[in-house]
Structures are given as structure tokens and as C-alpha cells.
Amino acid sequence: MDVDDVAGRLGVPVEEVDRVHRLAGDRPSAPLPARADAPTLLDRLAVRPDDAAEILAAWPDPGSPLWTPELRWLLDRSTALVRADLGGHAWLAPGPALPRDRGPAWRHLYVYAYLALVDAVRAYHRDHDVPDDVSWATLADLGNNLAVDRRMNGDGWPVMQSWLTLHVRGGLYELGRLQHQRGDGGAIGLHIPDSGPLTPEAVDASLERARAFFPRHFPGEHYTAFSCGSWLLDPQLREYLPEDSNIIRFQRRFTLEPHQEQDTPDGDVEVLRFVFRSLSTPLDRLPRRTALQRAVIDHMRAGRHWQWRQGRFPM
Q: Where does the GNAT-like C-terminal domain start and stop, copy by copy (predicted)?
């Protein structure tokens, strides 16, 4: 298809469609699972019933009026683009952010790409002897992200569509409380899913699993440290939270790098995203039920800003 025509029909910048065209090239895509098998797969991926019903209703069946030629082209080439980087561990945009208010096919196009790639990444996991429980726990982050996006009224997805390419390329693994991202520079990147208290015991257990997991399943990669980039590492939180809080105890594990405003996520946006799951609610309407919520609101009401900080500690 003509790139300019596809971009015009999708209502996105032509440069973004051209990027998909160049990176995917004529590489093979991956087929979607049979629609009859989709409910079981969606359940395995922890997709909630309301999200699963919407995904199934807009399934890209042949002849579906929901799926225009340009949408089918983008689904095919986006899937090929991500599959071509199987084994990669950097963030990867699978394609342009679509106007998701145009219907469920538009809203869930990159979800269908994720589903199409499950078999490929499962084969990659088997090649590296990754246990089934780790494989499925990692891939089930799809359901959590869809639920968060629904809670955020669609504001979460532009970040999530790139984030989830880590899971279907074998770049990230959920090992207990933390997610661990393979990386360059000798460090495993830590991510903190929204899955309960960040207790020192749960963190210790996850780190211990990682110390055994990566040498066993990726012996050609040598890691000497854990790293993390997060608003959770902002030292300003110590002004508000007690020293024995889980967040402060997590912070104390890290040696921070100097703070840089450029080339890092906006700390205020990320705090609102993760603490309140809202980017548009006025401060005076946000809940103040926890010490963390009160800290975030009081800090921003005082005209101060949160920081995204990067740190690491020896493995």
C-alpha cells in the first residue's frame, strides 16, 4: 500500500507510517490465534471480562467491516516489525498512536499484534528453557495494562503499546514482585508492577530469583548490577514518608545518578499516572486516603515538582 495513502486514512503522520514500512520491510508477520481459541488465551493473559468481550467482538475476521485495508496493513506490518526484533530488550514503538475513539479495531490493534506474537515469544522462551510459570506470568501483564488503561479512560495506552513489546520479544521477565529487563551496560532494569505491597522481603525474593535466572537462561549475558529509573527513587519522598515505609526502604538500595531534566520522563506526569491512574483530575479532586497520595498532592500544591531518578546497586 502507498505510505501516504495509509497515513492519510489512519490520520497519523506519514513519517510514522514510513517508519513501520522501513522497519518491517517484507519480513514475515505472525498469524493471530483462531478466534475459537482466543477466550482461553485472553484468560491466560489475565485480560478482564469487559476487555476480553471488546477484543473478541472486534476480532479481525476476514470480511469484517471494522477492518479497513489500512488497518489490516498496519496490523500485519506492526506485527512483523516487532517479530523481527525477537530477543531485543530495548523499548520499541510498534507503530503510530491511533485515534482510538474510532472504534474497537483502532483501540485494540496493538493488542491483536501482541496476541499474534504470543506463540513466537513462547518458542523463544522454550529455546532458553524459561519455565512456563515465568513465561505466562510475564505475558499476563497484558491484562493488567488493559485494566489500567480502562481506568485511565484511554490515557495509559500510548506508553503501554511500546512497553508491552518487551514482553513479546523476550526482553523482560516477571520474577515475583519485580519485573526484570535485560539490558546493556551490565545492568538488569527493574520495574515495579502494580501488584501489591513493595515489601523488602518480596523485593529480596525477586532479586534472588533474578540472580539465578539470568545466568541460567541467558549465559552469554553478564550482569553486575540492578538499575531502576522511576519516580519512586525521588529523594523528595523522604520529606513526607516515614523511614520504615516500603518506598523509602526500596530507595535506600540504590546509589542515584545526578538528576537530569532532559531526556527523562516528566516526574509529575509519572507520579499522577502511577499513584492516581489519572492525568486530568484536578488536584483538589484526587483522593487523599494514603500517605503517598497526600504527599503527592501537597508537594504539587506547593508549586514543587516530582523527579524521575535513575539509580543502581551491585548485583
A: 172-313
Span 154-188, pLDDT tens digits: 777 778 899 999 999 999 999 999 999 999 889 99
Strand partners, 188: 226
Rounded Cα distance, 205 and 188, in Å: 15
* CB-based burial, 265-281: b 16+ in 10 Å, e otherwise: eebbebbbbbbbbbeee
CA 141, CA 45: separation in Å to the nearest integer? 7
Q: Does the structure show a pLDDT above 90 at 32?
A: yes
Last residue of a domain, one of 142, 175, 208: 175
Does a structural domain hold residue 140?
Answer: yes
Q: How far is CA 123 from the centre of its chain?
A: 21
- Which residue from 85, 80, 193 is spatially nearest to 138, judged by alpha carbons? 193
CATH code: domain of residue 294: 3.40.630.120
Q: Is the dihedral of CA 180, 183, 189, 195 positive or negative?
A: negative
Same domain? For 239 and 105 the reply is: no
- CA proximity to 136, closest of 149, 125, 147, 152: 125
Q: Do residues 170 and 209 share a domain?
A: no
Domain holding 97, by residue range, is 3-175
CA angle, corner 314, sides to 313 and 315, nearest 5?
A: 120
Query: What backbone torsions phi and psi does residue 179 show, to the nearest 5 degrees?
Result: -100, 140
Helix (H, G, I), strand (E, B) or coil at 278: coil
What is the pLDDT at residue 156?
Answer: 73
Length of the chain: 315
